[in-house]
């Protein structure tokens, strides 16, 4: 099965690429946009006529996994056109490509399609995004659903894990702990989510593909924590003392984009179909790290 992973230079895409490549029955091609890696080729889905989009000419995907989006939530809020292009237009163009190859489409989405009034959310609950990023992710989801192609929409939130750039929240904390620098953080206690290891997203994706599943699936661990608790779990694990951790509220932070406060995702549907699957939690991930 030929799998094209768009955004393989990132956290989720990189883990999906690495995980699927272990299996002989997958031939995986990953792409990047601005951050070139050894394992990926340049491909710009915002403009299918981009002259540099040559590396995929000989690759005929059976599955396209779209992990690319403009993910800086506050930046999206006042760069609406750029957010639209990177998140919605890229999806529309990749759906065109999927149609040409009769490929299944996998869209990686978010709990930001909800308003955060009644999370953690199941798939049946009503979407109602409250920021530009969330609205554009929902618009992209709707394009996928309307495409009439076989599809999977995997909603995730608060992703951590190993990645080339080590830029996710947990990875950055681990880097700071390793370097011994003083950590000063003011974090909201009222933004809740269900953090997930990107490797679990990859494992769940493989199961869904192998079993020919379609539709919307929420993926999330049993951790339901706020930003403060997440940082505290990491710092506590390594008994890190060089730290000033302060509590605040989302309102006090005055972030440009409104945040869904009671966010997070319930993976009941996925787990009822795959009862043998176990989502790891943040402590499992930390126990694989030796430093500190
Ligand atoms: N991280 C989270 O907590 C989280 C939570 C919920 C949902 N998600 C969703 O999960 C997906 C992957 O997120 P991530 O955390 O892995 O992000 P990431 O680490 O920032 O990676 C994004 C990847 O997409 C590429 N990319 C960006 N815009 C693109 C575009 N318009 N077309 C094609 N590729 C593009 C980037 O390429 P270059 O870096 O090479 O430019 C990078 O490889 C996104 O769709 C995001 O909305 C993430």
UniProtKB/TrEMBL annotation:
InterPro entries found in the cross-reference section: dTDP_dehydrorham_reduct, NAD(P)-bd_dom_sf, RmlD-like-bd
EC id: 1.1.1.133
Protein origin, superkingdom: Bacteria
Catalytic reaction equation(s): dTDP-beta-L-rhamnose + NADP(+) = dTDP-4-dehydro-beta-L-rhamnose + NADPH + H(+)
Pathway membership: Carbohydrate biosynthesis; dTDP-L-rhamnose biosynthesis
Pfam families, sorted: RmlD_sub_bind (PF04321)
Enzyme class name: oxidoreductase
Gene3D superfamilies reported in the protein's UniProt record: NAD(P)-binding Rossmann-like Domain (3.40.50.720)
Record keywords: NADP, Oxidoreductase
All copies of domain RmlD-like substrate binding, residue ranges: 1-273
Functional note: Catalyzes the reduction of dTDP-6-deoxy-L-lyxo-4-hexulose to yield dTDP-L-rhamnose.
Family to which the UniProt record says this protein belongs: Belongs to the dTDP-4-dehydrorhamnose reductase family.
Protein name according to UniProt: dTDP-4-dehydrorhamnose reductase
Species this protein is from: Hymenobacter cavernae
